[in-house]
Design goal:
alpha/beta; two-stranded parallel ribbon; nucleotide-binding; 10 strands; 12 helices; 6-stranded mixed sheet
């Protein structure tokens, strides 16, 4: 019996050493994070200069820095901002076969749109001859040819529709919309990050960037045209362009669920271990060990997210104090930031440390809830008005 207890004690000692070892390996001290921010700013410049990043050849740049053709996000403080925009978000589970066939996927979307239009009340019916304008949030890497067209570079998030790569996703959706008999067309193609930036800018004109922190992560920001060497043709009147960085993704949903378990016996952790990994009858020590590991991973992720934001601010020259104390707003959306309080607080405190109190006092992280849907609707309204003005 004593020998068995000794073996058990040794086993738990080895297990307890795992989080400590992981913490050492995952350490992200401030100096290293500043190096990450410097590298981020350098790669942003490289991506802005390289056409390889647009998917035309084997890319040697780490950041795609995709041109979005959104040159003037609508501002709620501008008299020229259109008001008839609304965001409609329907939650429908995408059937597995839709992830592997373009016909099924875009038809699925078009059918959902047709059902929505059919359910509208009389007060929402448009005058005869007026076409509905659609903002299409498509959160996959796309090389845009205009604000309302773009060819798919690659699939992510478990989708694998090979025949769609290199094709215009707007053209495909418009075909299925027409097949459903709806008088509607896509006026703005955006990903969730660009939509969040547009939504943030509409509420606060000092918004210069947006970050998504959910099942994946990405960032977009407003760049000066003279800093985009790969741009061809005359610059837009605004002199600015929203850039979709495509800075990578990570998955942390289950880390969120386990780390935030506040029940006395860590019941949620136990359920997760059983349902996801098939590990049954876990004791309190095992569950606490999982929580500790989650905290290490979440801390590293939050600190790296802060370093990424710092890199954007560095590229824009907003990482140093300005005489006029220029306000800088970063719009953030995504379940990890919204629901994982530990992550959000860790990221914000890390960014303050990296910037210093003087600069950090003028930088605001603001939640833009459902920013992608709202922003797409605002951009659709804004650009449809612009197209009507020039007779497009």
């Amino acid at each position: 019996m004593a020998r068995q207890r000794l073996r058990e004690a040794r086993r738990w000692a080895r297990a307890a050493a795992v989080p400590r070892d992981l913490q050492e390996r995952c350490a992200a001290p401030a100096e290293r994070l500043r190096q990450v921010a410097d590298a981020m700013a350098a790669e942003m410049r490289a991506g802005l200069a390289s056409n390889d990043s647009e998917g035309e050849s084997a890319s040697s740049v780490l950041l795609k820095m995709l041109v979005t053709y959104v040159d003037s996000p609508p501002s709620g403080y501008s008299a020229q901002t259109p008001t008839p925009a609304c965001s409609i978000k329907t939650r429908r589970a995408i059937r597995p076969k839709c992830r592997n066939g373009s016909v099924e996927l875009f038809d699925f979307i078009a059918v959902a749109l047709a059902k929505f239009v059919a359910s509208e009340g009389e007060g929402f019916h448009l005058p005869e001859g007026m076409q509905r304008q659609l903002g299409f949030t498509f959160s996959f890497p796309v090389k845009q040819n205009s604000v309302a067209s773009g060819t798919l570079i690659k699939w992510t998030k478990g989708f694998a529709i090979d025949e769609m790569v290199g094709k215009d996703v707007v053209a495909e959706l418009n075909k299925d919309i027409k097949r459903q008999g709806i008088d509607m067309k896509v006026t703005a193609l955006v990903n969730d990050t660009v939509g969040t930036l547009a939504a943030g800018r509409y509420v606060d004109n000092d918004t210069v960037a947006a970050v998504i922190l959910g099942t994946g992560t990405n960032a977009a920001y407003i760049e000066h045209m003279n800093s985009i060497p790969k741009w061809c043709g005359p610059p837009p009147e605004s002199g600015e362009m929203v850039i979709n960085m495509e800075w990578g993704n990570f998955r942390t949903y289950h880390v969120l669920m386990r780390h935030q378990d506040t029940s006395p016996d860590l019941r949620t952790v136990g359920i997760n271990l059983k349902e996801i990994f098939g590990i049954e009858n876990t004791c309190g020590k095992t569950r606490k060990l999982v929580v500790d590991v989650c905290e290490v991973v979440a801390t590293r992720s939050a600190r790296l997210a802060a370093a990424g934001i710092h890199g954007i601010l560095k590229k824009l020259g907003r990482d140093i104090a300005s005489p006029d104390k220029q306000k800088t707003v970063i719009a953030v959306d995504g379940g990890v930031y919204k629901y994982y309080t530990f992550f959000a607080q860790c990221m914000e405190s890390t960014l303050r440390d990296l910037l210093g109190e003087e600069v950090a006092s003028s930088v605001v992280i603001k939640l833009a809830e459902d920013g992608s849907g709202t922003g797409a609707a605002l951009l659709a309204a804004s650009y449809s008005q612009r197209f009507q003005a020039v007779g497009v």
